[in-house]
Structure formats: structure tokens, C-alpha cells
From TrEMBL:
Domain of life (superkingdom): Bacteria
InterPro entries: DUF416 (IPR007338), YP001051499.1-like_dom_sf (IPR023381)
Organism of provenance: Aliidiomarina haloalkalitolerans
The organism's taxonomic lineage, starting at the top: Bacteria, Pseudomonadati, Pseudomonadota, Gammaproteobacteria, Alteromonadales
UniProt-recorded name of the protein: DUF416 domain-containing protein
Length: 195
């Protein structure tokens, strides 16, 4: 039997496990936004941190929040690609988009937006490589193969698979599981782009 893909494995998780995975992946994308804010003098990292903290609180103790208010604030600090011409803008947009998807999933109690976060995280790595290190490769198939084999993409997939393993072993998501996942993400000290 063929091994399930990362996204198939995520679909098999229950809603709360998917939401916890999405929060973990957002935590790993946040430093990309922080770097953009520092270099572009635009945005507000506190908005993303506050929204993600609200998501973690929801997962840990089922604390409600005004998700639409967070979405509105997030929209205000999301960079517009027409206003910036720096590579770091795209990972910043991905961080905002992923967090928005997580918040939507929490508000609607639907797993689909949470799965989207995993896709956005992998996509941001691919886009970063495509526009940066691998930009000189003109053949699209060759570039796609290089992206798939690149250590940064392999690391992203490995991280997602490892967290899925963790969630499958843990089963139910409780306060302690959420605290452990937050700690793992923060102590890793590296974003999904290796920054």
C-alpha cells in the first residue's frame, strides 16, 4: 500500500487536531512576517501575534474571540504586492493568508481552512525558492523537480509529517498538548524558510 501524502494524513485528523497543526504552522511562518516588517517599515507584528495567541487560547481552553475583528485587523496589515518589490513580501503575505485561514477554520469550526494552512506553508517555501535561489532555472519542470528535492522543502514536509505523527499519537487535543506544540514551534527558532 502506498504511503499517504501529507495532505491525505491531515484530512484524516479530526478538526481540533487539524486546527492545532495549522496554529503550529502559522507559528513557524510568523518570523517571515516579522522580517518583512523590519525591512519594509510596513505592517504590525503585534496584530499577527495577537490573532495567533487568540487561536492558541481557543484550542487550549475553548476561549472565544471576535474572529471577524481579528480578520479585519489582519487585512489592514497584510502587504499588497503592488506596493512592495522585495522577495520577503511573499512570505509575509503567506503568513497573513495562513493565519486568516486558521481564524476562518476556528470561526466556522471547519477543517478545510486548516488544511489550507499546510498547503500555504509548503507553497510559501516553493515560491521563496522559485523566486530566489532557483530563479535562474528556466525550464519549469526542472525547477519544480529542484524545488521538490531542495533541503528546505524536504525539511518543511518532514516537519509537517512529524507533527502529524505527534498529533496521531496524542489523540485528543487538550491544554497540555497545545502548550507542548507552542513550545516546540517557538523553541525550534527557525521559520519555515530556514530564517
Amino acid at each position: 500500500m502506498a504511503r499517504k501524502t501529507t495532505f491525505q494524513r491531515i484530512r484524516a485528523l479530526d478538526y481540533r487536531q487539524q486546527a492545532a497543526l495549522a496554529a503550529y504552522l502559522c507559528e513557524r511562518m510568523l518570523p517571515n512576517y516579522d522580517r518583512f516588517v523590519e525591512s519594509a517599515d510596513f505592517g504590525d507584528s503585534k496584530v499577527l501575534r495577537g490573532a495567533l495567541n487568540a487561536a492558541w487560547d481557543k484550542l487550549a481552553v475553548n476561549k472565544g474571540s471576535d474572529w471577524q475583528r481579528w480578520q479585519d485587523k489582519l487585512e489592514e496589515v497584510t502587504p499588497n504586492e503592488q506596493n512592495f518589490d522585495v522577495l520577503g513580501m511573499y512570505p509575509a503575505i503567506a503568513a497573513c493568508t495562513a493565519l486568516s485561514s486558521l481564524l476562518q477554520g476556528l470561526e466556522d469550526r471547519e477543517p478545510g481552512p486548516c488544511l489550507d494552512v499546510a498547503k500555504i506553508s509548503q507553497g510559501s517555501v516553493a515560491h521563496y525558492l522559485e523566486l530566489g535561489e532557483l530563479a535562474e532555472i528556466e525550464d519549469a519542470d526542472e525547477r519544480a523537480a529542484q524545488i521538490e528535492q531542495h533541503p528546505l522543502m524536504a525539511y518543511e514536509v518532514d516537519i509537517q509529517q512529524a507533527m502529524i505523527d505527534f498529533l496521531e499519537e496524542m489523540g485528543d487535543i487538550d491544554k497540555e498538548t497545545v502548550r507542548e506544540m507552542r513550545t516546540i514551534a517557538r523553541e525550534e527558532g527557525m521559520s519555515n524558510l530556514g530564517l
